[in-house]
Amino acid sequence: MNVLLDTNVLSEPLRELPDPAVMAQLESEEHVLHTASVVIHELSYGIHRLPSGRKQQRLNSYLQGLLTSGLTVLPYDGKAALWHGEQRARLDARGLRPPFADGQIAAIAATQALVVVTRNTADFEAFEGLDVLNWFSLS
Fold it and tell me: What single string gives the DSSP state of each residue in 66-83?
């Protein structure tokens, strides 16, 4: 399965007790793993908000490792922007205003025919034409 990993999935290996189901899926050869440039931004932003020290260094090292691991990082391009704009207008007309970053992630996944893997499935449910999966619910 071709999947786009959300921030909470990519950061799971850093937890003291990572979810075994998520770890099994990440290590499985059943999936082709991708993420979005927006997710990399969220990770980087979180790291740079921390005070300088060992934790920040460990997290930055992890992020750099992700970037050199072969994980495909997909951009928010023109096709994604058009999809996102249409979805945003549709949702706005219904009084829904999902976070902009979630819309960008959804747009990248939808235009690349990828399944979004996230713990926060509710953040993506209002988008049309998007498949969402929660590996955390497998444990």
Answer: HHHTT-EEE---HHHHHH
Cα–chain-centroid distance for residue 96?
Answer: 21
CA atoms within 13 A on the CB side of 102: 20
pLDDT in tens, 45-80: 999 999 999 999 999 999 999 999 999 999 999 999
Give the Cα separation of 125 and 35 in Å (integer): 19
Q: Distance between CA 137 and CA 17 in Å, rounded?
A: 16
Shortest CA distance to 97 belongs to which of 79, 84, 111?
84
Helix (H, G, I), strand (E, B) or coil at 56: helix
Helix (H, G, I), strand (E, B) or coil at 126: coil
> Residue 56 and residue 109: Cα distance in Å, rounded?
29
Q: Is the CB of residue 95 less than 8 Å from the CB of residue 101?
A: no
Tokens of 126: 């209002």
Three-state DSSP at 1 gives: coil
